[in-house]
Amino acid sequence: MTNHITTYIKFLSLLLLMHSVYAQQGTIEGKVTDGDYGVAYANVFLNGSDFGTASEENGNFAITDVPEGSYHLKVNVLGYQSFSTPIKVVSGKSTKLDIVLQESSEQLEETVVTGTLKAVSRSESPVPVEVYSPTFLKKNPTANIFEALQNVNGVRPQINCNVCNTGDIHINGLEGPYTLVLIDGMPIVSGLGSVYGLSGIPNSLIEQIEIVKGPASSLYGSEAVGGLINIITKNSLEAPDFFADAFATGWGEYNLDIGAKVPVGKKTDMLLGVNYFNYDQLIDNNNDNFTDLTLQNRISIFQKWNFKREKSRIFSLAGRFFYEDRWGGELQWTPEFRGGDEIYGESIYTTRWEILGKYQLPIDEKMLLSFSYNDHKQNSVYGDTPYIADQRIGFTQLTWDKKIEWHDLLFGTAVRYNYYDDNTTATVTADEVTIPSLFVQDEMQLAQKHSLLLGMRYDYDKRHGNILTPRLAYRWKLGDNDIFRFNAGTGFRVVNLFTEEHAALTGAREVLVTEELKPERSINFNLNYLKKIYSDNGTFMSLDASAFYTSFSNAILPDYDSDPNQIIYDNLDGTSVSQGVSANIDLVFPSSFKIMVGATFQDVSQNEGGSKQRQILTERFTGTWGLSYDIRSPKLSIDYTGNIYGPMRLPILGEQDPRPEYSPTWSIQNIQFTYKGLENFEFYGGIKNLLNWTPNNGVPFLIARANDPFDRNVTYEANGNVAATDDNPYALTFDPSYVYGPNQGIRAFFGLRYRLD
Known about the structure:
Layout: H1 2-23, E1 25-33, E2 43-46, E3 52-54, E4 60-67, E5 69-76, E6 83-89, E7 94-100, E8 111-112, E9 120-121, E10 130-132, H2 134-138, H3 145-148, E11 155-159, E12 167-171, E13 179-183, E14 186-189, H4 193-196, E15 206-213, H5 217-220, E16 227-233, E17 242-249, E18 254-263, E19 268-279, E20 295-307, E21 315-329, E22 345-360, E23 366-382, E24 385-404, E25 407-421, E26 431-447, E27 450-461, E28 465-479, E29 482-493, H6 497-500, E30 510-513, E31 520-534, E32 540-553, E33 556-559, E34 566-571, E35 574-588, E36 593-608, E37 611-614, E38 621-631, E39 636-645, E40 666-675, E41 681-688, E42 747-756
Parallel strand pairs: 1-7, 13-16, 30-34
Antiparallel strand pairs: 1-4, 2-3, 2-5, 5-6, 8-9, 10-15, 11-12, 13-14, 15-16, 17-18, 17-42, 18-19, 19-20, 20-21, 21-22, 22-23, 23-24, 24-25, 25-26, 26-27, 27-28, 28-29, 29-31, 31-32, 32-35, 33-34, 35-36, 36-37, 36-38, 38-39, 39-40, 40-41, 41-42
């Protein structure tokens, strides 16, 4: 009897204990919506714990057996802004919570404006537009946009000079002058500015970067032949109250980026951004007595004013001031040697200011006036060769957006003013021209799944007369997640030799223009397919693939091959073709693991006199990738980014030059760790160029005749060719143009971000 009573008491005690434990646990349940519909497969979790779940197809979710206490509940899902709220779990009770998510600017349905000059969702645009957010830029932090684009598939920042480290942007294998760079839709980065225009834009004020690969001349004029890059700055509604980002590298690079929103009255907000970059280390790891990286001291100040008007009409003004002092050359160079022939150095002082604005007319019709002006002054010397240049560009454009039944019309007129003067023989007098333009665009909704865009632009250039650039775009939407696009267009480009080819000013090569250069003309075709796949477990995949073809007539390309002592410019007596295929694949898993992979295969070549030759400094294939993983606890993100480039033909100095004619396949890889455990703060650090690759690997030297930069000891034969001597066994002259990639090896970096909303 006693045993039975004891057993009963133990059983009762166990029940009471189980009830006590159960009573100390609670449940969180609710629904995730976008305001109208449930959001499926949203990641719902308690921050800093192992408790979490994924929402069902209708948006419902439940987290059970949660210990009593206070938590922070978070919700993440592709296409929406992250959600966070404090929540208290009470034992034995269910806490109900309905969550409404806001659409994110990083979703696949981002609003884009570059393709058609109208704000439309990416999937509805007949022109394929790639969009890159500030989050993308943070995965591999850089001091300027130029370097940041190294992880964009089909886009390559090309270094053009071993000494001054200036460069341009290649899109689908086409040289930098074929790419138009815009800021808020304004073509203020061109000519002289094309080399420096992507430096010093405060990253804190960038809303997104839109890239169009293919012709856009019918809307943007002659420079948008191969593609365009539009850097869109934030408006006052989306900008943080204060933002600061500072980082340093093991090479001694220091970058500071500051942004702030300043209210000025009830109807005016001002955004202020400042970027400062400094690098002053004399590093010569390849032992040629030349700087491996150009020393730089740069500051950029940006302001944007937004004015609130009736009916939400647009009115904004922005301005930027840019100053940079950069030099590279022999290690013993100092400013007192500037412009002399004793110690070789390339010194460039750049002063630049810009103003741009948009004003929507106070009428019922949707008419927008856009305007910009910039002044760019460059005081530079390349050894003992001066290059003093002044460029001014003014631009005004009026557009009328009008819908008539199934026609979405855009009418526009623009005037562009160009002034350019330098001290070269190519510019005897200042080049000054005003180019008026008219353009029209009609996007027709042919059926529910089919739309057709037709466009035409007319420009008048007094140097070349009337210029017509038509355009066609067709979109076939097979379903919500399947889109075909076909684009075709023509281009017209007037070359300004020395503003675009700074390599022509470096080294001992003679620059030779054999004839009056005719404008280039091009025709371009692009076929694009976009596919999105949503799996039942919350995994998301997208495929963005393109095939492209561009043919040029009268192409103007530098000839490094005919004479090792010259760079010859003339119109190609034949055709120049860029063709290939490109694809981007994005994978997002419910576990917060993301994969972005891109690859481009291309053939860029010239055919002249029945002979086909690959274009110099152009790779056959490229690849990019980005792997990201977010760890909930301890709030750590890991980003592994990289690129790979196939061999490219290089500018060697004749048959005796011991340097390889083709580059190897090379890759730059980076890893970064970001800690977000403190409110408003982010700490990040990692390693750049993990493989420690530099272009001097496997070559006897990069700069030809670095020991004799003024060619004092070069002997010439009677025919003008360089003679081989004991001092110069390879018959070379000084030449720093043998360059195809960054010359920085492995280095650590560390940074801190602060954001206050």
